[in-house]
Amino acid sequence: MSRSAISARDATSALGPAPDLTRLPLLLTRLKLTAIRDQLDSLLAEAARRELTLAETVAFLCEREIARKDERRIEMALGLARFPMVRDLAGYDFSAQPAVDPAQIRELATGRFIAHGEAVLLLGPPGVGKTHLSVGLGRAAILAGYSVLFTTATSLIAQLVKAHTEGRLEERLVHFSKPKLLIIDELGYLPVEPDAAHVLFQLVSRRYERGSILLTSNRAVSEWGQVFGDPVVATAILDRLLHHSHVLTIRGESYRLKEKRRAGLLGTAGPSSVAPSGASPVGAPRSKRIPAASSPGVNS
Ligand code: ADP
Ligand code: MG
Q1: Which 3 state secondary structure label does DSSP give 40?
Q2: Which terminus of the chain has fewer CB atoms gathered within 10 Å of its CB, N or C?
């Protein structure tokens, strides 16, 4: 059979002509398989070197593509999350903070609480690692595939109030309702005006059972009536937050001050030498233990 006869047969056979290899980059681009496209030669060479079968080669190429997509997604999600500092759970010294149960943090790091739309409250005086843990849990959530947004309570409330006065509240509520996990840091450092408490309530109820909130506060839940200046709104917010929630109350002294003390900068005398598990040396109000905190895990 002549060569032209073969191509004529190919062109008319049910299988169609042999694929045009010069179009391969274009096809891969159209399928958004950019990792395979960019490294095709070296990936195929590696597959040949490892003597992979055709099916194994396809699996190998898919793995590389997925690894690149995951890397990109994580990089982008970390940027979108707007964490205020680079921290992870591996960098958290659990031995310095016996009030924090590593097993509970490991469980939260799986992201299951986000899948179930549960809330996490990290309570305790300044310096005990609330922000560190919230960033660490936020990172873990991103690695588990969830979108995360970090904000301080002050910034969140200011944005909601501003949007409210400009008639754009709905838009901002949508913005803060989108991420699967919203981290609200430092509630309670500043009192919340009644108007502000009301828009915050709207956000909390909108996210209720749909998305998770991780909230940190230096005030015990029993003091939130004062924080919001309105016990009714405080109760309404708490009602939704505590319904399905994990409450971690961190006691003890500031990690930074402890480090300084260890380095001999502050001397050894101080409240902590009198009451080892006790009050913060900066005189911060010690969080009262609220009933929900006594049983780690889901309190409903
Ligand atoms: P908080 O938010 O409770 O005021 P931070 O999370 O800001 O405290 O902690 C203050 C500093 O101390 C941060 O740099 C944090 O990384 C560090 N830190 C606090 N607790 C720990 C800990 N147990 N292990 C390691 N670093 C810690
Ligand atoms: Mg903090």
Answers
A1: helix
A2: N
